[in-house]
Write a structure and sequence with these properties.
The structure holds two protein chains of two kinds. Helices cover 67% and strands 0% of the residues of chain A. Chain A contains 16 helices and no strands. The longest helix of chain A is centred in the first third of the chain and has 36 residues. Chain A starts with a helix and ends in a 47-residue tail after the last helix. By secondary structure, chain A is mostly helical. The N terminus of chain A is likely disordered. By secondary structure, chain B is α+β, with helices and mostly antiparallel strands. Chain B has five helices and twelve strands. Classes of the chains: A mainly alpha, B alpha+beta. At the A-B interface, helix 4, helix 10, helix 11, helix 12 and helix 13 of A face helix 1, helix 2, helix 3, strand 9 and strand 11 of B. The complex binds protoporphyrin IX containing FE (HEM) and copper (II) ion (2 copies). The site of protoporphyrin IX containing FE has 25 residues of chain A, from helix 11, helix 12, helix 13 and helix 14.
């Protein structure tokens, strides 16, 4: 009886009440939407912090904020962008697209899905509230190195917030793995899955492996601060460098958590607009897996200047350089996918092409940083800041924007304004280079990172960078405008297959995707799959 | 930035651009500098940096070049029809093996650099560096095999920079100059004086939190960590004043703890060291006289 009742209810579409629909949601599409809205909000909050940083660095001398507040801004900017903007955006995309791509009716664990999202607003409320507390927010950098991080007054709040984010990520990862391994439609073999699904499967394992490590590290910080343990306290026989080993054992896989799903997205979009199957599907999957494996044995490349024994420096240098090989394979395969295609350049494709070029530039600086002796100069300078913004902003964030333009017709049922999408793209891609490219020069010339003021020799490139920063920040308001217009005002209906060259199960359902899809498992035709069946 | 700053900077652009390609050595940051300094020490990662940079530029030109050709030739608007192929074992082997060969070449270079850097033996002098929030302490431990008697001092941001860097001080950073070179936030009250042509071993520790001692002209930075004694070395080739900064976030005034190394000829250094030792003795004597209780008869 009870079963029949729920079953009936399921087919009625979305619940009517706002609370019922959004707060109590167990629907993968609605939860995906919540994640994406949350991520966009955090993107603007983290962006506001970045504007404070770039404004203070606009010219030499201290004009706007106290140095301590400046440090709070750099710390919060990183924490909000990494844990609030990039990671939830990818989880949101996974929620929306993984079930649609593998032909599943929903995520495997819908209630846990609700919980893993709704933890996040509380975590970030707690994290951000520290800025309004008497002792101020965390100011020791997102890397939280002791002993400095333990000098802060907000340690307990920050650590609790990080625990919540970690729990949310782990639950999200479990859900994604369970969905991919158990809920695929018959005929959707592992090696027929879209690369995006593959990339998330591997990312989810990375998350489960390393989030508990972060939790351990911050818990040790907590007990050092409040319970008189001495894990990291040299005076009590502890070792501050131990923290760095643990942190980066989490931290390096973490940076790949933020780029592997991006690889997946780009591997969906380029074949669509090149109208040609992805080049070397198996190599692409294998490259992601080997990058994920290598990411566990390179952590100390963040620690070349802590005075490691020479043998350790050599090992971590070689292992880090090895990552360039599978990363190179991916780039070459994207270029080969374009070669011999029939390309058009809609906004998602433009962002994807910019991704390939600019992410590769970030990879180049990564390769340079991997050379330990040279890193003795680069480390903790603006050169590193330039490196990770090329891989994270023009890498991860651009892939998220590409994904938003690519799938928003499926989500909303409307086409966005191509003109304004292109304006957003060109404005972003130019400004982001004005913002970050000069930072390579600053770092090479000797400007350390995380400083609120600098010598006059660094003035011009800082001013250029700040102008690029304000411009890039303003450009994202266009993004917001395009999304709002598309969802609420656009008159242009999206076709089920919104892009001429689009392949994959998600394009076989109506646009907008109905509240419930694939109640009956779809029949898989091999030529429907994005990578085609020419590969095997 | 002031208009004077811009004027001066414009002429420096040219120098900066020249230097980028000519590989000129700067001792200290110059306006619009775009590249790493060659440094003034026997050990320098500059050559390796340039090799890696050019390797990246060449690969970049090939990959991006191929992309732009593809974007031009294979556009739908030019009537391109998509081909069907989706892999090529031959190509995939090529672009796995070629990068590996390039990497082996780079790794070989870098390993050499690491080995020479790690070798702190055979030093003729030892200096202990301690990082504090937010200043450095230098202690001269030994010179030419002889212990140095109580020469040590604290070195911190010089006073005019410190006044100028206060929030809304309305003081002009451009005005802080030494010999026509802007030293805003890059000058200290008391520099570290060292001899040229002598292999100096530094022992680097942290006094409270982690700092990092970095003078770009010496080619490296090394973290100053509480409870750990790190070692590094330099052998400076030319006399001069070399400036750097703390490179590891260490709290609110992390941006305001510069480093100045003054390298002088050996004879001058020895003279300086002798004066310092004398001063230390006088000070010590004065202190013991002051602190000593009434002399106790020996017995
Ligand atoms: C070819 C691939 C890459 C290599 C060889 C590489 C290498 C490195 C190295 C050696 C550092 C340490 C630099 C230093 O602190 O001195 C570093 C820093 C960093 N990298 Fe990468 N990287 C690569 C790709 C990526 C990717 C894909 C991401 C993220 C999407 C990323 C994000 C970061 C971040 C966030 C930091 C700075 C962390 C911090 O100190 O706050 N990197 N990278
Ligand atoms: Cu890393
Ligand atoms: Cu510092």
């Amino acid at each position: 009886m009870a079963h029949a009742a729920t079953h009936d209810h399921d087919h009625h579409g979305a619940p009517k009440g706002f609370f019922q629909r959004w707060v109590m949601s167990t629907n993968h599409k609605d939860i995906g939407t919540l994640y994406l809205i949350f991520s966009l909000t955090m993107f603007f909050i983290g962006g506001a912090f970045a504007m404070v940083i770039r404004a203070e660095l606009f010219k030499p001398g201290m004009q706007l904020v106290q140095p301590y507040f400046f440090n709070e801004m750099t710390t919060m900017h990183a924490l909000v962008m990494i844990f609030g903007a990039i990671m939830p955006a990818f989880v949101g995309l996974a929620n929306w697209m993984v079930p649609l791509m593998v032909g599943a009716p929903d995520m495997a664990l819908p209630r846990m899905n609700n919980l893993s999202f709704w933890i996040l607003p509380f975590a970030f409320f707690m994290l951000l509230s520290t800025l309004f507390m008497p002792g101020g927010g965390p100011a020791g950098g997102w890397t939280m190195y002791p002993p400095l991080s333990l000098q802060g007054e907000s340690v307990a709040y920050v650590i609790f917030a990080i625990h919540l984010m970690g729990i949310s990520s782990i639950m999200g990862a479990i859900n994604i793995i369970a969905t991919i391994l158990n809920m695929r439609a018959p005929g959707m073999d592992l090696l027929k899955m879209p690369v995006f699904v593959w990339s998330w499967l591997i990312t989810a394992f990375l998350l489960i492996a390393v989030m508990p490590v972060l939790a351990g590290a911050v818990t040790m910080l907590l007990t050092d601060k409040y319970f008189h343990t001495n894990f990291f306290n040299a005076a009590g026989g502890g070792d501050p460098v131990l923290f760095q080993h643990i942190f980066w054992f989490f931290g390096h896989p973490e940076v790949y958590i933020m780029i592997l799903p991006a690889f997946g997205i780009i591997s969906e979009i380029i074949p669509t607009f090149a109208r040609k199957p992805i080049f070397g599907y198996r190599a692409m999957v294998f490259a992601i897996a080997s990058i994920a494996f290598l990411s566990f044995i390179v952590w100390a490349h963040h620690m070349f200047a802590v005075g490691l024994p020479m043998g350790a420096e050599i090992f971590f240098m070689y292992a880090t350089m090895l990552i360039a090989v599978p990363t190179g394979v991916k780039v070459f395969n994207w270029v080969s996918t374009m070669w011999g295609g029939s390309m058009t350049f809609e906004t998602p494709m433009l962002f994807s092409i910019a991704f390939v070029i600019l992410f590769t530039i970030g990879g180049f600086s990564g390769l340079m940083l991997a050379l330990a002796p040279a890193d003795f100069q680069y480390h903790d300078t603006y050169f590193v800041v330039a490196h990770f913004h090329y891989v994270l902003v023009t890498g991860a964030a651009f892939s998220i924007m590409a994904a938003a333009y690519y799938w928003i017709p499926k989500w909303s049922g409307h086409m966005y304004s191509e003109t304004w999408g292109k304006i957003h793209f060109w404005s972003s891609v130019i400004s982001v280079n004005v913002l970050f490219f000069p930072q390579h020069f600053l770092g090479l010339a000797g400007m350390p990172r995380r400083i609120p003021d600098y010598n006059v020799a660094f003035a011009n490139f800082n001013m250029i960078s700040s102008i690029g920063g304000f411009w890039f920040g303003a450009s994202q308001l266009i993004f917001l405008g395009v999304i709002i217009h598309c969802v609420f005002f656009s008159k242009k209906k999206a076709a089920d297959r919104s892009w001429e060259g689009a392949k994959g199960l998600e394009w076989t359902v109506p646009s907008p995707a109905p509240f419930h899809t694939f109640d009956v498992p779809p029949v898989i035709h091999d030529d429907e799959l994005a990578h085609g069946n020419t590969d095997h | 930035m002031t208009s004077g700053g811009i004027g001066r900077s414009v002429s420096a652009w040219a120098a900066g651009a020249m230097a980028l390609f000519g590989g000129e050595a700067w001792a200290n940051p110059v306006p619009n500098q775009m590249n790493m300094t060659q440094g003034v020490s026997e050990w320098s990662p500059y050559a390796m940096h340039m090799v890696a940079l050019w390797v990246c530029v060449v690969i970049g030109v090939i990959v991006f070049g191929a992309m732009f050709i593809a974007m031009f030739r294979f556009r739908k608007s030019r009537g391109a029809v998509a081909e069907k192929w989706a892999h090529s074992t031959k190509l995939e082997i090529v672009w796995t093996v070629v990068p590996v060969i390039i990497l082996i070449f780079l790794a070989n270079l870098a390993t050499g650099g690491l080995t020479t850097f790690a070798d702190t033996t055979g030093a003729d002098m030892t200096i202990k560096i301690t990082g504090y929030q937010w200043k450095w302490r230098y202690d001269y431990v030994d010179y030419k095999g002889k212990g140095v008697d109580k020469v040590g001092f604290v070195s911190k941001l010089e006073e005019s920079s410190d006044r100028t860097r206060q929030l809304k001080s309305n003081l002009d950073p451009d005005k802080i100059q030494v010999d026509g070179y802007n030293t805003y936030l890059l000058d200290v009250d008391k520099p570290l004086v060292v001899p040229v042509g002598v292999k100096i071993r530094f022992i680097i520790v942290g006094g409270d939190v982690i700092h990092s001692w970095w003078v770009p002209a010496l080619g490296w930075k090394m973290d100053a960590i509480p409870g750990i004694a790190n070692a590094a070395w330099t052998k400076i080739k030319e006399p001069g004043v070399y400036r750097g900064q703390c490179a590891e976030l260490c709290g609110q005034d992390h941006g305001f703890m510069p480093i100045v190394v003054k390298a002088v000829p050996k004879a001058e250094f020895e003279q300086w060291l002798a004066t310092q030792e004398d001063e230390a003795k006088i000070q010590k004597a004065a202190q013991t006289a002051q602190n000593a209780p009434a002399p106790v008869p020996q017995g």
